[in-house]
Amino acid sequence: MQDTKRIKNPGKQRKMLFNAPAHIRHKLMSAPLSHELSASRGAKTLPVRRGDTILIKRGDHKGFEGKVSRVDLKAFRIYVEGLTREKVDGTNIFLPIHPSKVEIRNLNLDDKWRKNILARKQVVEKPAKKVEKPQAKPAKKGAKVEEEKPEEVTPVEEKVAPEVAEEAAPKKVAAKKTAAKQEAPAKEEKAPAAKKAPAKKAAAKTTEEKEAPKTKAKKASDKTKGEQ
Fold it and tell me: Into how many domains does the chain fold?
């Protein structure tokens, strides 16, 4: 089998096409399938064969649709029914079209080998993979096994009937009033302690006022002695 690796040199590329064997030439004559045909058959491209219905997508004859009448593997061209031109002498000849410019609209399935190719290309639905949970590793000998603590259950509030709620409402109000009365004397006891502070300040002021005349008298006596 001939090597099909990619070649970048243009001269070698032309040489490869010129010397290509028939099985490689057959693959080079592939054309894309239409979206509807590709979805139903599960294939994107197939080699063009005689009897296929094609639509020309590019070139001077864009939009022309017809059946393939002949495939020329030597020149890498196809010929379509109805796509002809008249020569000077009045004879009609088929126009050659390259397979890369066409789209296959309908397939000719007379060949059993082509049916087998399409059967292989159809998508097979794979079963969903089961996700296996990681198994717990066995505990080593002598290792302490932690006991799972039971989850704490929060108590659920019991629903109280509206009649019972109305009876309990006055009791709650009375309890609040008694609590307020007990707190009131404690606040009154603290209040006098706060009032004692100004009394101390007033006593300090009176002592200063009493001492002030004495100091003045001493200063005056000291001055008189100094003058004498």
Answer: 1
Q: What is the DSSP string of 140-177?
A: PTTPPPPPPPPPPPPPPPPPPPHHHHHHHHHHHHHHHH
Q: Hey, what's the torsion of the CAs at 38, 43, 47, 53, to 10 degrees?
A: -20
User: Per the structure block, which two tokens stand in for 34?
Assistant: 């239409």
What is the distance between the alpha carbons of residues 148 and 139, in angstroms, rounded to a whole number? 15
Q: Which tens digit of pLDDT belongs to each residue from 125-142? A: 566 666 666 676 666 666
CATH code where residue 37 lies: 2.30.30.30
Residues of the domain holding 15: 10-121
pTM over the 0.85 mark: no
Nearest to 101 by CA among 56, 60, 63: 56
Q: Is residue 1 part of a domain?
A: no
Residue with tokens 């009448």: 69
What is the amino acid identity at position 115? K
Confidence band (pLDDT; 50, 70, 90) for 5?
A: confident
Which residue intervals of the chain are DSSP H helices? 10-18, 22-28, 35-41, 112-121, 162-227
- Residue 186 domain flag: no
